[in-house]
Specification:
Blueprint: H1 4-12, H2 18-31, H3 35-45, H4 53-67, H5 71-81, H6 84-87, H7 90-106, H8 110-127, H9 132-139, H10 155-161, H11 164-180, H12 188-203, H13 218-225
Helix pairs in contact: 2-3, 4-5, 4-11, 7-8, 7-11, 12-13
Pfam families: CTLH, LisH
InterPro entries: CRA_dom, CTLH/CRA, CTLH_C, LisH, Ubq-SigPath_Reg
Protein name: CTLH domain-containing protein
Length: about 240
Amino acid sequence: MVSSSEWHARLAQIPVPKRDLDRIVLDYLLVQGRKEAAETFSNETGLSLEMESSDLDARVEIRKILLRGDVAEAMECVNELNPEILDTNPVLFFHLQQLRMIELMHQGQFDEALLFAAEHLAPLGEEHGSLLNEIEQTMSLFVFDMSSGSPAIPAYAQRLYSKDYRQRVADELNSAILASQSYHCSAKLLELVQMLRYSEQLLGQNGPGKTDFPHLSTADLLHTTRPKPENAESMSDTSPIL
């Protein structure tokens, strides 16, 4: 077994240039739309933003609009930015339309939500067969009393009806916009954390490495690096990075 002190001593011997760390932090801020923090960090480190300010502004605004529940307005803004984003991403388009229906349900407009599903979701299932299972799960929201919070409600239904689902769709839309701007879709910081977790599995006692060593709490890292805004205030640049 490798002791904690020995393990950390070994880690401390690995050179990690500060410039590389700065680039990882700046990349995270850009991908997550933390414009003011990114600009401040860029000025302090001398690193270029590698992204047009207007593109960043548009993406941040679309995210804020979606996170406050104005899905239709967010979709209009996306089409103004680049209509090909939704035209070429049928799954993303479905999730946005699905979220529009769910927002109607949150507002107590169940008849309107059912009509919206019939007019906008059902045709997507006919056009894209891979969406049929998701459509069935979506329609099940009308079967359950979602406001009751009953533990008998299936997990998938609870996930869809949760306000956190806005964040999931916002992340998906954010990635699509980044891709349309020829930028990578996920923060390098999160990719590195995922690589760390996988490497620990390989090196650990249950992997081919068969080594007992102190593991970093990657679950906590992933939790704290993932933004959880539900409104514009929680999108502030004071959100934690690590």
